[in-house]
Amino acid sequence: MVAPVLSAARTADLIGPTRGDGPAYQLVADALRLLIADGRIAVGTRLPSERDLTGALGLSRTTVSSAYAVLRDRGYLTSRRGSGSVASLPQGVVRRDTGLHLSPDVPEGTIDLTCAAQRAPAGMTQAAEAAIAASPDYLCGTGYLVDGLPELREVIAAHYSDRGLPTTADEVFVTTGAVVGTAIAARALLSPGDTVLMETPTYPNIFPTLRQLRARIAAVPVEPTGWDVPTMTSTIRASGARAAFLLPDFHNPTGNLMTDEQRALVAKALRQSRTTAIVDETVVELGLDHEGPMPLPFGAHHADTVSIGSASKSHWGGLRIGWIRAPKHLHESLHSARVPLDIGAPVIDQLVLLHLMRASPGITQERRRQLVESRDALAEALRTRCPQLRFVMPRGGLSLWVELPEPVALQVTLAAEDEGLLFASGPRFAAAGGLDRWIRLPYVLSPEELTEAVERLVRALARVADGSAAAHGRRAPHPRGPLVA
């Protein structure tokens, strides 16, 4: 397999200025080490040759050669025949923590920010009552509606058409949530050992399925400000990926929104490589203060796209209803892959969602206003109480992707747990290791709760900084921690 290639110009941009205290080779080596550890240069990426990077940085060949030598000695570069210098992580470095943890045993008084999801919306009780009233029409059957409730499929299809992707109900089938839908798509498209292209960071609950399939991951970094499309397209062409798992709509966890122009470029590379896109659209309805029309669904740019939707973020996670929108030539393989995992979503829950979607396909204006208030309160508390932390304000989605000054995300996460605050550390979202300077903070609670959460984070950061949390940093996370979603 050909390693993804990072151009010399892009590498120089990522390294930044090379003036400062200490030898220039050490500054270059330290910058590249942090970029690899953070996942901004994905493990497995081929770095530019020493000669090419020398020209891009305007430094001597000796300086760049010495920097690469330092990285090789420390385990951050590996020399491979035919691939040059490839980004790697030292042996013993924790690559990622990707288990799906489910536990209701959150201690009383703990602020839980591990799950980026909202409480049930207003009108849920009325929707449930309407579903029960409509249920007698379905009680004479077995209840196994493998493709889903026809009326709900029609509503979902109409919404895709309204967004700019003409869709009929027979191109949609309903699943038991988006995680199941994504697993179905992965099993339908991938054989053991196939390569899948993934963003890093990315939504973590796809990792167990990829491990079971023994899939190889070609990772492409998503910056806090968005996608590096040239690197992404070159990786698509070089990786030989059978499928690409993408989150272009208010990306979880960064909140980025891919433009139509970017989608078109990525779609062109996917078509040329005959790569099927698996696109997670679970937060597409969560624009907060995005201006102008939304970009077209990714499937409008790339016909060979399997779109995964869900009610969990737009309405309520307790419904456990998702869906797949796919071109008809993929339906047979998708249905075959589905049977071991899911033989039909609950009828009553589908009727509830049908009632809710007829009223509003996404979040209500009131819910949007609440999310904006909570996001702004969290951002202001972080700026005031934790000015050393950095983040880019998202225009949508449900969380802030926050950068720590040092690669201590796991230590901070564990120290925060002792302060009564739960959140997910960056390595959980890493497709190819790193991201240990990042944490995800959802803004799904009230402004008051989020302000208190920041106070607890301040205490956790202080304990890590003064070393009093060192003993906790050496312990492993609880094997049955809370859900990260």
From TrEMBL:
<keyword id="KW-0804">Transcription</keyword>
<dbReference type="InterPro" id="IPR036388">
    <property type="entry name" value="WH-like_DNA-bd_sf"/>
</dbReference>
<keyword id="KW-0238">DNA-binding</keyword>
<feature type="domain" description="HTH gntR-type">
    <location>
        <begin position="22"/>
        <end position="90"/>
    </location>
</feature>
<comment type="similarity">
    <text>In the C-terminal section; belongs to the class-I pyridoxal-phosphate-dependent aminotransferase family.</text>
</comment>
<dbReference type="GO" id="GO:0003700">
    <property type="term" value="F:DNA-binding transcription factor activity"/>
</dbReference>
<keyword id="KW-0805">Transcription regulation</keyword>
<dbReference type="Pfam" id="PF00392">
    <property type="entry name" value="GntR"/>
</dbReference>
<protein>
    <submittedName>
        <fullName>DNA-binding transcriptional regulator</fullName>
    </submittedName>
</protein>
<dbReference type="Pfam" id="PF00155">
    <property type="entry name" value="Aminotran_1_2"/>
</dbReference>
<dbReference type="GO" id="GO:0030170">
    <property type="term" value="F:pyridoxal phosphate binding"/>
</dbReference>
<dbReference type="InterPro" id="IPR015424">
    <property type="entry name" value="PyrdxlP-dep_Trfase"/>
</dbReference>
<keyword id="KW-0663">Pyridoxal phosphate</keyword>
<dbReference type="GO" id="GO:0003677">
    <property type="term" value="F:DNA binding"/>
</dbReference>
<dbReference type="InterPro" id="IPR004839">
    <property type="entry name" value="Aminotransferase_I/II_large"/>
</dbReference>
<dbReference type="InterPro" id="IPR000524">
    <property type="entry name" value="Tscrpt_reg_HTH_GntR"/>
</dbReference>
<dbReference type="InterPro" id="IPR015421">
    <property type="entry name" value="PyrdxlP-dep_Trfase_major"/>
</dbReference>
<dbReference type="InterPro" id="IPR036390">
    <property type="entry name" value="WH_DNA-bd_sf"/>
</dbReference>
<dbReference type="InterPro" id="IPR051446">
    <property type="entry name" value="HTH_trans_reg/aminotransferase"/>
</dbReference>
